[in-house]
Amino acid sequence: MRRALVGAGLCLALSGCGGGGSPAAPGPPTGGATPTPTATPTPTPNPYAAACGTPLPNPGDIYGYRIKVQLEPSRNRKILNASPQVRNAAYCAAVGLGGEFCNTRLETDPQREACDHYLSGISDTGRPGPDWYQVVNDRNVRCGGLGLPSEGAACVLKEITQYMIDITAPGKYRACSASGSCGVCVIEDSAWGVIHGSPAGLCKLDGD
User: Fold this and answer.
1) C-alpha span between 200 and 27 (Å, rounded)
2) What is the C-alpha end-to-end distance of the chain, expressed in Å?
3) Which residues on adjacent β-strands are paired with residue 133?
4) For position 44, what pLDDT does the model report?
5) Distance between CA 98 and CA 111 in Å, rounded?
6) Residue-level pLDDT at 45
7) Containing H/E element for 155?
8) Which residue from 169, 79, 177, 66 is spatially nearest to 132, judged by alpha carbons?
9) Measured between alpha carbons, how far is 23 from 31 in angstroms, rounded to an integer?
């Protein structure tokens, strides 16, 4: 009888007869639902890159703008036209232009406009193309129009395109991309007050 009581006591101490079992597995953690991972937004494709196609100019290869006098509507007004330049001989060969510097495409290529937009970026007017300045006392003063105040007294943006401006005096004019790569056109006093048969070569660079 005494042995039976001792055995029963041991059985209770060991939390039940029939052998020791494994402890119960821990339950799920408490304290709220598991947070949902934040989705990474899909980058918006550049529409001008898609429209430009292949080969696509590298924005790092922009080398300012080649600026020319597009038209002379009168003796005291000229229209300047800027074209972004690519500095990459392999690219220039691929688009059929050759040389170390070139336009984004041939003049007649339907992809030209989109490629120019892609390389230039967006101007302060919200349109693709360069920002324009008149250089006065070695300082850039903005050519106004399309909602931008005019700082330069002799230049104004064209409504039809960001790549052109009207100028009403000789002097130095600058076109700059969104990344800050610029081109310069200097119209000398001797070129003013005259309508030329071929005005495209009237723009001079600094030091010409």
Assistant:
1) 82
2) 124
3) 142, 174
4) 77
5) 18
6) 79
7) strand 155-157
8) 177
9) 23
Beta strand 171-176 with 131-136: parallel, antiparallel or unpaired?
Answer: antiparallel
Burial of 71 (0-12, 13-18, 19+ CB in 10 A): middle
Of 124, 135, 117, 128, which Cα lies nearest the Cα of 49?
A: 117
Runs of H (alpha helix) within 24-73: 47-52
Q: Give the C-alpha distances (Å, rounded to integers) separating 29 from 33, 34, 83, 104.
A: 10, 10, 64, 61
Tokens found for residue 181: 């790569």
Other residues' Cβ atoms within 10 Å of the Cβ of residue 153: 14
Show Cβ contacts of residue 178 under 8 Å, excluding neighbours closer than 6 positions. 120, 121, 122, 123, 131
Question: How long is the chain?
Answer: 208
Six-digit token pair at 79?
Answer: 């229209």
130 upstream amide cis, omega within 30 of 0 = no
Residue type, 75: R
Mean pLDDT by 10 residues, the chain (208 residues): 41 43 52 63 83 97 97 97 98 96 97 98 97 96 91 94 98 97 97 95 85
Phi and psi at residue 200, to the nearest 5°: -60, -30
